[in-house]
Amino acid sequence: MSEPALWGLRRKLLDALDKVGLARPAVGAYELALAAKANLAERRSSAAAGLPVPPARLRAQVGPAHADAAFFLRTGRTQADLIRSLVREGGSSVEDLEAILDFGCGCGRVLRHWGELPRTRVFGCDIDPRMVQWCDANLPFAVVSVNDLAPPLPYADSAFDLVYAFSVFTHLSVQLQHAWMRDCLRVLRPDGWLLMSTLGEHYLSLKRLTESEEQAFRRGEVVVLYQHSAGSSLCSAYHPPDYVRERLGADFELVTFRPAADEGRHDLHLFRKPAMSRAGTEQSL
Question: For residues 209 and 225, what is the distance between their CA atoms, to the nearest angstrom?
Answer without folding.
Answer: 9
